[in-house]
TrEMBL record:
Reactions catalysed, as given in the entry: a quinone + succinate = fumarate + a quinol
Provenance organism: Sinomonas puerhi
Gene Ontology cellular component terms for the protein in this record: plasma membrane
Top-level taxon of origin: Bacteria
UniProt-recorded name of the protein: Succinate dehydrogenase flavoprotein subunit
Listed pathway(s): Carbohydrate metabolism; tricarboxylic acid cycle; fumarate from succinate (bacterial route): step 1/1
UniProtKB keywords: Electron transport, FAD, Flavoprotein, Membrane, Oxidoreductase, Transport, Tricarboxylic acid cycle
Gene: sdhA
GO molecular function: electron transfer activity; flavin adenine dinucleotide binding; steroid dehydrogenase activity, acting on the CH-CH group of donors; succinate dehydrogenase (quinone) activity
Gene3D superfamilies: FAD/NAD(P)-binding domain (3.50.50.60), Fumarate reductase/succinate dehydrogenase flavoprotein-like, C-terminal domain (1.20.58.100), succinate dehydrogenase protein domain (4.10.80.40), Succinate dehydrogenase/fumarate reductase flavoprotein, catalytic domain (3.90.700.10)
Cofactor binding, note field: Flavinylated by SdhE, about 5% flavinylation occurs in the absence of SdhE.
Presence of keyword Electron transport: yes
Pfam families: FAD_binding_2, Succ_DH_flav_C
Amino acid sequence: MQVHKYDVVIVGAGGAGMRAAIESGQRARTAVLTKLYPTRSHTGAAQGGMCAALANVEEDNWEWHTFDTVKGGDYLVDQDAAEVMAKEAIDAVLDLEKMGLPFNRTPEGRIDQRRFGGHTRDHGKAPVRRACYAADRTGHMILQTLYQNCVKHNVEFYNEYYVLDLLVVEEDATRADGTPFKQKRVAGVVSYDLASGELHVFQAKSVIFATGGAGKVFKTTSNAHTLTGDGMGIAFRRGIPLEDMEFIQFHPTGLAGLGILLSEAARGEGAILRNSEGERFMERYAPTIKDLAPRDIVARSMANEVREGRGAGPNKDYVLLDLTHLEPAHIDAKLPDITEFARTYLGVEPYTEPVPVFPTAHYIMGGVPTNIKGEVLQDNDTIIPGLYAAGEVACVSVHGSNRLGTNSLLDINVFGKRSGINAAEYAKTAEYVEIPEDPAAETVALLDAVRTASGTERIAAIRSDLQETMDANMQVFRTADSIAQALSDIATLRERYRNISIQDKGKRFNLDLLEAVELGFLLDLAEAMTVAALHRKESRGGHYREDFPDRDDANWMKHTMLYKDDAAETEGIKGLRFGTKPVIFTRYEPMERKY
Ligand SMILES: Cc1cc2nc3c(=O)[nH]c(=O)nc-3n(C[C@H](O)[C@H](O)[C@H](O)COP(=O)(O)OP(=O)(O)OC[C@H]3O[C@@H](n4cnc5c(N)ncnc54)[C@H](O)[C@@H]3O)c2cc1C
């Protein structure tokens, strides 16, 4: 086992991790550990755009952007964080431009902007052009640009290093009011080198988690195979709470039956959703901004059309995205990749035929709780010195209960940058926390248990059954019964997980082994999402309970905090405890959410 020492260790080389690395790398000795080669991170799959109130093509300002983010998130957004994000958005885009990102331009040479769901002029009056973009490969351009700049700043990458544990120690401490508590401190991480099968311990003054989302708990998802929520899972196992895990975003336009994403940019450029009768049904659900309503509303409206028998296709189980009124040249210039997806995967020609679409699991609004500096919280009042999180793994919370399109590429840039600066500044004066004796003991035990297991269950089968139950029961519409079904299935799957075996027992490139570990994270996170969904007895943003169809501000205007606690039991699950965290209000009182 090798031990390395850095000031700052960043886990994850997606947009959030690399934006942090650019800042940290210029201030402190920084290493980035990533299970994927950096430019294969999911940020590279992002299509539609990154928003900022640049007002390049029409009137706009950061205050309208803040309001849209708060209302889009159904008022569960921490408004201080949303304000920071909307204000710093402008510099975030200009930073990328200076680093060399080739944004689409207006004829006058300014960065062009287009429409996206929920982004409006003057507090909801009409859609506004706020999303900056590079055709429909904005994330690809961001990831390449950030990687080039990391190389320029000599950031050290450890590629295909899987982080499997976070080293935290607990110290006796006292709160301001005199009560004693255990202060967590971060000492480093334990990682597994895929190529050699060797473990490497990294000691660091600061650690930034930027490990992305967990969409792979679902079968129908826009997320890549690798989005298994490792960072959330590791943090949770180490006693760090998870915030707002019940809120999962279903993107309206996945290719039907496949889940592959067709960006909202299509609707931003004028595409229209229609039911089997050819009706533009969003006019009924969101009369003002129609197809450009926030994603939770559009996804539910689509599912409702199908339920009420107005779905298209032989099984009436999808709706249609109509681009046929757009000029082919316009489609080719603005939406080249996603229209090609429709041709390749569905054999549909978007110039002349509408594209079958249905909601697909897309984004996890919840995650590891942080404040606006990127510092991770161990509880509402206490940060963990030296530990930061940014991007989809984190919950800061700028997205509340429903994220607006193009706000994630923004989030990773704004809070990636903040975390990178703050982690490096912290490392300048902090001392190393001593790593525990035998730091990799638990990781060794975890890996040995999988390697030597001789059960009869296959990893792929358990994963697929997990995804089936989540697709069936934790969807756009939920009830106490459906959620309870998912929970009981997850309990059965956990039992089966104790009886696995893997075929590859070798050391080098053992993906069998790592997929087994990743499945462990998926099971933990699916349980967290499901138990939180059962707990929240109201409907808000992405979480819709048919048995509690209204938003209930009197009882539920609060964040859910889920703690691992061996002594507790909640919603029938041993070892879990719920807490709450107040929502931060600055200027907007909750209103009825109409579009
Ligand atoms: C198809 C698609 C299209 C999208 N389009 C848009 C869009 O147009 N606009 C928008 O705003 N948002 C969009 N999103 C959402 C947005 O792209 C993501 O939320 C965002 O890019 C996440 O960035 P991230 O840096 O947090 O994580 P990722 O980019 O997912 O990076 C995660 C990193 O963590 C590493 N990692 C994970 N686990 C480990 C581990 N155990 N050890 C070591 N490393 C690890 C991975 O190697 C990877 O480098 C889209 C998402 C998808 C799936």
